[in-house]
Amino acid sequence: PHLPLLPVSGAGALPPSALECNERAVGCFAARRYAEAHELLHRAVLLDRSSPVYLANLAVALTALARYSDALDASDCVISLDPAYPKGYVRKARVLLLTNRPHLALEVYHAGLQRDPSNE
Fold first, then answer.
1. pLDDT recorded at residue 109
2. If phi over 0 gives left and psi between -120 and 50 gives alpha, with beta otherwise, what is residue 5?
3. CA dihedral over 38, 39, 44, 49, signed as positive or negative
4. Is 92 exposed, middle or buried (0-12, 13-18, 19+ CB in 10 A)?
5. What is the C-alpha to C-alpha distance for residues 69 and 48, in angstroms, rounded to an integer?
6. 3-state SS string over 59-90?
7. Counting beta carbons within 10 angstroms of the beta carbon of residue 48, is it exposed (0 to 12), middle (13 to 18) or buried (19 or more)?
């Protein structure tokens, strides 16, 4: 899948580590500063492309910014990177629901449950 990395503004100093970027982005979500969260997560993914957590959080930021196609791409990257990580399926299904594709969302939820039946 295509990794949806959007241009960043370059404003302000970004943290030097992916973990720090992710932690700051989580704070941005709480404050509803989604563009800033996107920038931080974009950096986190560039620093560590092996983490499904950063990609899943990037999908959340993209969804909040109504970048649904990019959010689907990010979710697909999560699922490709770690098919056992349930948040990839949850993120993808959420976008599908927001874009009026409930049947596809249900299929994605089922696929996630097949990977991790104990996950509620």
1. 93
2. beta
3. positive
4. buried
5. 22
6. HHHHHHCCCHHHHHHHHHHHHHHCCCCHHHHH
7. middle
Chunked in runs of 10, what are the mean pLDDT values of the chain (120 residues)? 53 74 95 94 91 96 96 95 94 97 96 81
The pLDDT, as a whole number, for residue 40 is 94
- Distance, CA of 102 to CA of 28 (rounded, Å): 29
Report the C-alpha gap between 2 and 114 in whole angstroms: 24
Residue at token pair 């295509």: 2
- Are 54 and 77 in contact by the 8 Å Cβ rule? The answer is no
| pTM summary value | 0.86
Q: How far apart are CA 53 and CA 81, in angstroms?
A: 10
